[in-house]
Amino acid sequence: MDERNRRAFIIGGLGAIAVFAVLFFAVGARGVVDSLLSADPSLVAGTFALALGWLAAWSLMLRTVLAALGVDVPVVRSFFVYAGAVFANNVTPFGQAGGEPVAALLISKVSDARYETGLVGIASVDVINVVPSISLILVGVAYYATTAALGSRLETAVGSAVALISAIVIVMALVWRYHDRLVERLPAVVAPRLGRLGLERFESETLEEDLRDRLGRFFENIERVATDRWRLAAVVGLSLCGWLFQTAALTVAFAALGYDVAPYVLLFVIPLANLAGAAPLPGGLGGIEAAFVTLLVPTTGVPASAVTAAVLIFRGAIYWMPVLIGGVSVSAFGVRAVR
Question: What is d(CA 306, CA 324) in angstroms, rounded to the nearest whole number?
Answer without folding.
Answer: 26
